[in-house]
Design a protein that fits this description.
single chain; 12 helices; alpha/beta; globular; 42% helix
Length: 352
């Protein structure tokens, strides 16, 4: 059965991937709302917007009149909230933007959605869903052992993580206070096509191509669980369709790697693709660590596996190879998204 779906932040990395997933796996009508900040780019939707089921609106989730109009005119039944500032380093340099979008913006989106939901008939109320897409970073840092579960306490350590934690709490509060039908997901680090090149994997791909130095924070031992963006989005679609209202679902890729292991993997694949005679590993440069850098994240997604039958389709080895190949084949996209002020420089040094 088709629905009218609102995807906020739909021109971003994960948002555009979700739109492609919904086009492929559903009959939904999809409305994209995106402010088109530096990380939001219509080029990321180049294969989506010609689809007659997809429409795009440029705007801010904090614009309540605009959101209210969209919800009513498009008769929205499901909201995927992906609109967010998401880069930890940027949150260190300028946390105010993260409060504005991630906390205030989410709160105002919730208010608009709640008002709309209250006006719906009983059947439409029962069918309505609001899915908040969050991060494992809200849980803080792990030692060498253990996994984050849906019961892990929130212990955010960066301004980004704190802003996402606050927005998650508002979503949860709207459910428990008003009965508003919400779901929350916390995912591990995403990678894949169309990711803005401030993030580790596309940044390193770009730097290896240019034979620039490869800056690795600290000693490179910080560990993340890597989740291919297509797997993340298949999980989001599954949770929206089958998840239990009020529940939290962790989404992980079962692919823990240290930052240095990730960089080395990129170097080796690209040296092979580009027929380099000198190993790109020699360009690795260790730089001062990020302030408050969490040591390790790792996700236990057995709840999602067991209750909804979801499993990731990509392993890290095949996923990183296909990601490198995509960037090498889409240099024009990379050049266009780099037309703004960002040029791959170091961010998030805490005022150094």
């Amino acid at each position: 059965m088709s629905s009218s779906v609102l995807v906020t932040g739909g021109a971003g990395f994960i948002g555009s991937s979700l739109v492609r997933e919904l086009i492929k796996s559903s009959d939904d009508r999809i409305v994209i709302l995106d402010k088109l900040t530096y990380a939001g780019n219509l080029d990321s939707l180049r294969n989506c917007l010609p689809d007659s089921r997809v429409s795009f609106v440029e705007g801010d989730i904090a614009n309540k009149p605009l959101v209210a109009k969209l919800l009513r005119e498009q008769e929205i039944q499901r909201i995927f909230n992906l609109a967010a500032e998401s880069h930890v380093d940027r949150s260190i340099d300028g946390p105010a933007a993260f409060i504005k979008t991630n906390v205030v913006g989410t709160f105002q989106l919730l208010e608009s959605a709640l008002e709309y939901w209250k006006e719906l008939g009983e059947h439409a109320k029962q069918a309505f869903r609001f899915l908040q897409i969050s991060t494992d970073e809200v849980y803080g840092s792990l030692s060498a052992t253990g996994l984050f579960t849906e019961k892990s306490p929130y212990r955010p350590n960066s301004p980004y993580a704190a802003s996402k934690a606050a927005s998650d709490h508002f979503v949860r509060a709207f459910h428990h206070t008003y009965g508003f039908p919400v779901l929350i997901t916390n995912c591990s680090n995403n990678y894949g096509p169309f990711q803005f090149p401030e993030k580790l994997i596309p940044l390193m791909i770009m730097k290896v191509v240019n034979q620039d130095s490869l800056p690795v924070y600290g000693d490179g031992s910080n560990v993340r669980d890597w989740l291919h963006v297509e797997d993340h989005c298949s999980a989001l679609a599954k949770i929206m369709d089958c998840g239990i209202v009020g529940e939290v679902y962790n989404i992980g890729g079962n692919s823990e790697r240290s930052n240095l292991e990730v960089v080395y993997a990129i170097c080796d694949i690209m040296d092979n693709r580009l027929n380099r005679s000198v190993s790109s590993r020699e360009f690795v440069t260790y730089v001062p660590d990020r302030p408050g850098h969490d040591q390790r994240y790792a996700i236990d997604c057995s709840k999602l596996n067991d209750s909804l039958g979801w499993q990731p389709r990509h392993n890290f080895e095949s996923g990183i190879e296909s990601t490198v190949d995509w960037y090498l084949s889409n240099t024009e996209w990379l050049a266009r998204v780099m037309d703004g002020s960002y040029r791959g420089e170091r961010l998030g040094q805490g005022g150094e």
